[in-house]
Amino acid sequence: MAYATVNPYTGKTLKTFPTATLEEVDAALETAHAAFGVWKNEPIEERTFILDKAASLLEAERNEYAEMLTTEMGKIMSEAQAEVSVCVAILRYYVEHTKDLLRPRMLLTQGFGETDVHLVNDPTGIIFAVEPWNFPYYQVIRVAAPQLAAGNVVMLKHASNVPQCAALMERLFLEAGAPKGVFTNLYLPHDLTEHVIASPYVRGVALTGSEKAGAIIASLAGKHLKKSTLELGGMDAFIVLDDADIQLAAEWAVRGRNRNAGQVCVSSKRFIVVDAVYDEFVRRYRAEAAKLVPGDPADPKTTLAPLSSATAKQQVERQVADIVAQGAKIEYLVDVPKEGNFFPSALLTDIPEGSEATRTEIFGPVAQLYRAKDEADAIRIANDCPYGLGGSVFTSDIHHAQEIARQLDTGMVTINRASASGPDIPFGGVKNSGYGHELIDLGLKEFLNQKVVING
Ligand code: NAP
């Protein structure tokens, strides 16, 4: 695990970075702790003034920031620009709302006067953020904007394949005027992770990534009695009922499965279609997927990106081979360039019920299709999954869809569209997709001390 920029389209290693030494990590922890001592006492307006400045800088340099996403993880340019824009919107959300959201709350109690008991939100210290490469800025900003607004400071350990995006995040906050140590990027080797988590200055651990990394980091957090939040993988179900607009469903399905080359936690991954419309859905999915244009992610005509690394491509190839060995059929829907880490958009059908395949998150543009007998069967298949991140329901009856949404064992459900996210919509899953929330007041308060103050 060396920190390096390797262009996923050309395969060229463009830059490498040495990992931090123990001494550098300790120095960074001291600096961040000292910064926290000042930052926590700044008025909210001062802190959000810096977030506002960061939003303006990001907006003004949108293309420069977007280009680095394309260079380091192969994101197509339009999606890269959209990622920068949503980061700007999240920063501005907290500029506008933090003061209101952190307002002390008076509690009406039995034993004290009406204004005697109140709940205040106090910052706690360094929040250690371990983040993945698939949305190199968005994932970081989802944690950094609320935490910095609330008075905590952030120490980032980013994925090893996006070191320049990580450095740009640190530069952004420094240029916006945040004192050194308020936001720190560390090229942390795995073997120093526990050292950081164990530091008494670190008061929370936020990880976004795989189940495997989540379990490791959460155990370390538990061992050192630090609160953690986990945003992990998903196998989002995309249910299509017989009264759905099948063309609309097919268009969203292809978009939901192939965006960011399928490397999205809330990608639609399992398409569960009732028998009556299954064949029509498959035909339309094929037709829509055939319109995808794989190619140079910097070329505006490209709509299917390469995978983020050679290892990611090998992993998808291995997973598909395993699923086919278990009896499923694979169908490739587009031709992809020989160079670059491309994996074609594909359909997996005839997946044996209960097989390991039904529990495997594929981080690539491969759709798993399931034929459901009827609606109840579709809901059963959707919930028969270790993950519980998002999900979608397609039907012309919105009220009925809302009832189905309540039956899905996931943190998020969309109706008649693939996943939706926004600066003012919370994000989080259940089951093996993790715990805790990011965004709005839920994310803002995850690592605060909600302290009770009682007048005697
Ligand atoms: P990953 O391998 O778990 O990596 C995520 C982060 O954890 C990286 O910074 C990685 O650093 C670090 N990490 C992994 N093992 C570690 C260890 N033993 N000690 C310290 N740090 C460690 O995940 P990924 O493959 O990059 O990302 C894809 C996964 O993230 C998918 O499962 C996806 O669904 C999930 N995801 C979830 C959400 C959500 O919000 N729920 C959002 C995006 C992605 P290195 O690069 O140095 O290994």
From TrEMBL:
Question: Which InterPro entries does the protein's record reference?
Answer: Ald_DH/histidinol_DH, Ald_DH_C, Ald_DH_CS_GLU, Ald_DH_N, Aldehyde_DH_dom, ALDH_GabD1-like, GABD/Sad-like
Q: Which domain of life is it from?
A: Bacteria
Per UniProt, residues of the Aldehyde dehydrogenase domain are: 3-453
One GO molecular function term? succinate-semialdehyde dehydrogenase (NAD+) activity
Catalytic machinery residues: E231
Pfam families reported for this sequence:
Aldedh
Q: Which keywords has UniProt assigned to this entry?
A: NADP, Oxidoreductase
Q: Which family does it belong to?
A: Belongs to the aldehyde dehydrogenase family.
Q: What is this protein called?
A: Succinate-semialdehyde dehydrogenase
What is the native source organism of this protein? Bifidobacterium primatium
